[in-house]
Amino acid sequence: MDLPIRPRRNRRTAGIRALVRETSLSASDLIYPLFMHEKEVNEAIESMPGCTRWSLAGLVKEAGEAHALGIPAVVLFPAIAEELKTSEAEECFNPDGLVPRAIRALKEAHPSLLVITDVALDPYNADGHDGLVERNEAGELEIVNDETVAVLCEQALCHAQAGADIVAPSDMMDGRIGAIRSYLDESGFTEVSILSYTAKFASAFYGPFRGALESAPKEGDKKTYQMDPGNVREALRELILDEDEGADMVMVKPAGPYLDVIAMLREATTLPIAAYQVSGEYLMLKSASAAGWLDEEKVVLESLLGIKRAGADMILTYFAKDVAGWLR
Ligand code: PBG
């Protein structure tokens, strides 16, 4: 054939492919979500094979190993004892609670490791919702916005006082980014960053995570605060608000089924973008690999590369430590 243009020339050898590769993945892109509980033993998580609910000591060790492999940050998710859960979720700002103690232990053992915390009420709330719950005259459940934001501010401050580098509100209440920013600033924590869950969808892919923390809503669902999976313009609206309110970084969650949302936010903002490969995405890859149907290392690396190619700067993934090891 008389073909002057042959795209395959750019794919001819590994060297050429490396030169022309547009996206790459490295351990420094990864944020490692870690589950923990009050107990002194590490416990396998039934709903998320391969993941562990760590004791405080186990958490510090696991985070240290991940950091040594080049992972810059962890994000903490506590399983709170049922007897500490209340309708006001006060345990979320107890300075001697599980999360503040974990932050202090992690920062002391690994000062250069970034500690990110989840700001939302669901692990602490007897109702399992991210906000405070009231029943209206019709007897329906309502997640009350403004009262919730006041509690989230206390929670974020409590994490900042314990030494968190970044607080990550995952609750989807209106106005929480601005409120938390001013509350932290007034309290002298101008250096603590906010990673906003900007476009967090009401997704069935969170199911296994709620099993891990026993934090599923006791009644109703999260559709009045998390976004409708059909919407993408609405993500832009949330982005504009979060930028105005002072978010330092924004997040799209889940990641894989929402690559178009990541790509759209990438076009629309100069802020760094995080994407969360959530528990259900983890399980799809993990279970198919365990059955021998997929090559785990290859599909995980490809799934994460796709998320970066869509426009994410950083990725929260339960595979973080494995990936950092594979990339070595
Ligand atoms: C809670 C929270 C959830 C996740 C992260 N923070 C669950 C939810 O919103 O119901 C899900 C993470 C995952 O599925 O891996 N605010």
Question: Mind explaining what this structure looks like?
Answer:
- The chain has 328 residues and is an alpha/beta fold.
- The chain has a single domain, classed as TIM Barrel, CATH 3.20.20.
- It has 11 helices and 12 strands.
- The protein has an 8-stranded parallel beta barrel, surrounded by 9 helices. Strands 6-7 form a two-stranded antiparallel ribbon.
- Helix 5 links the parallel strand 8 and strand 9.
- The longest helix is centred in the middle third of the chain and has 18 residues.
- It starts with 13 loop residues before the first helix and ends with a helix.
- The mean pLDDT is 97.
- Bound molecules: ligand PBG.
- The site of ligand PBG has 12 residues, from helix 6.
Between the first and last Cα atoms, what is the distance in angstroms? 43 Å
Which shape, going by the Cα principal axes?
globular
The Cα radius of gyration reads 20 Å
SS strand fraction: 15-25%
Low-confidence parts: none
Count the domains: 1
Overview features:
alpha/beta; globular; 328 residues; single chain; TIM Barrel; binds ligand PBG; 38% helix
Describe, in short, the structure shown.
This protein is α/β, with parallel strands linked by helices and 328 residues long. The chain is 38% helix and 18% strand. It has helices at 14-20, 56-68, 98-109, 145-162, 176-186, 207-213, 233-245, 259-268, 279-290, 296-310, 320-327; strands spanning 30-36, 43-44, 52-54, 73-78, 114-119, 132-135, 141-144, 166-169, 193-200, 249-253, 273-277, 314-317.
Please specify the SSE layout and strand pairing:
Layout: H1 14-20, E1 30-36, E2 43-44, E3 52-54, H2 56-68, E4 73-78, H3 98-109, E5 114-119, E6 132-135, E7 141-144, H4 145-162, E8 166-169, H5 176-186, E9 193-200, H6 207-213, H7 233-245, E10 249-253, H8 259-268, E11 273-277, H9 279-290, H10 296-310, E12 314-317, H11 320-327
Parallel strand pairs: 1-3, 1-4, 1-12, 4-5, 5-8, 8-9, 9-10, 10-11, 11-12
Antiparallel strand pairs: 2-3, 6-7
Helix pairs in contact: 2-3, 3-4, 4-5
The protein binds ligand PBG.
